[in-house]
Structures are given as structure tokens and as C-alpha cells.
Design a protein that fits this description.
alpha/beta, 6 helices, about 40% helix, five-stranded mixed β-sheet
Length: about 170
């Protein structure tokens, strides 16, 4: 596996310069930026997403769990959540729960397994304020807002220490 140090050696620059190019930070001349990008292409370097996630303490992904995306309300909700998340530097993974307690519980469990930065759950059955859930009771935050469609409640969890980035201008 090609490392950032290998790219730096090939481009004749420091590892920090490679990091600055990979993260699209300012302060790197266009000539050096092109040299680093060429070294990345020549070497076949691929960003180690696991290392980035570990260092940053966030994945950049939030989950949205809804009863079904085929229902217009939840389709519109999904579109709005994706738009809001994108403006804050997040991606959204969508899960269908089928409106069942097992589907809703599985969505919460999966959000922890996949280390999402948060989960928005449109719950029809489950109420996270109750104590007996398979995911336990220790969450860093939980909030709710009622919806008028299908008598469901939308719950939002912060499952990791996420830091939202301000919208880019």
C-alpha cells in the first residue's frame, strides 16, 4: 500500500505538503500542487479513510432511517435532510425500517456499527426515552419533533463526537 510518505518522497516535498494538497488547503503553490497530484496519480495513492476517520473523530456520514422512501413525505424529508447535510459537509445514508420495531432498532444498531456521526430516525414504533432498547441508554444527545404524517416521531441522535463544518462559501 502506498503511503503519504511515499508520495512526498516521489514529489520531493514534505508529508505535510502532500497532506495540504490532499485536503485542498491553501498555501501550496500551483507548481508544487501539480507535482504532488502527479505523484499521487503515478503511485496509485489512495486516501486511507479509516485513518482519516480515526484522526478526525468523525466519519462525515449521518444516517436517516424512515419507514419507506416510497412514501412522498419521507422522500421529501430525505431530500431536505440531504440538502442540509451537504451544506454542512456531511453525507447521508438512508435506511428503510418498514415502520417495524425490529427495523427501527436495527437502524439504530447499524448506525453505531457503521460509526455514523448521527442518526435521524423517523420512528413509528420505538420511543428512545424508554429503557429497554437493544442499543442501550447511553447516548450523547437525543431530541424529538413530532410529524403529522403517519403519526410518527422523528428522533435525532449524535452517535459520535461530530463537529459540523460551516457551509462553504
Amino acid at each position: 500500500m502506498v503511503t503519504m510518505s511515499d508520495v512526498a518522497r516521489l514529489a520531493g516535498v514534505s508529508k505535510m505538503t502532500v497532506s495540504n494538497v490532499v485536503n485542498n488547503r491553501a498555501g501550496v503553490s500551483e507548481t508544487v500542487r501539480l507535482r504532488v497530484l502527479d505523484a499521487i496519480q503515478q503511485s496509485g495513492y489512495r486516501l486511507n479513510v479509516n485513518a482519516r476517520t480515526l484522526k478526525a473523530g468523525r466519519t462525515g456520514v449521518i444516517g436517516l432511517a424512515v419507514p419507506g422512501v416510497d412514501q412522498s413525505y419521507f422522500g421529501m424529508l430525505g431530500a431536505l435532510v440531504i440538502e442540509a447535510a451537504r451544506s454542512r459537509g456531511f453525507h447521508v445514508a438512508i435506511e428503510q425500517t418498514g415502520g417495524s420495531d425490529s427495523g427501527e432498532a436495527e437502524a439504530v444498531v447499524q448506525s453505531h456499527k457503521l460509526q455514523f456521526d448521527g442518526l435521524i430516525l423517523s420512528a413509528v414504533v420505538l420511543d428512545p426515552r424508554e429503557q429497554a432498547h437493544p442499543w442501550g441508554t447511553s447516548r450523547s444527545s437525543c431530541s424529538a419533533s413530532g410529524t403529522s404524517a403517519r403519526a410518527s416521531t422523528t428522533w435525532a441522535w449524535r452517535t459520535r463526537r461530530a463537529r459540523a463544518r460551516p457551509p462553504s462559501t
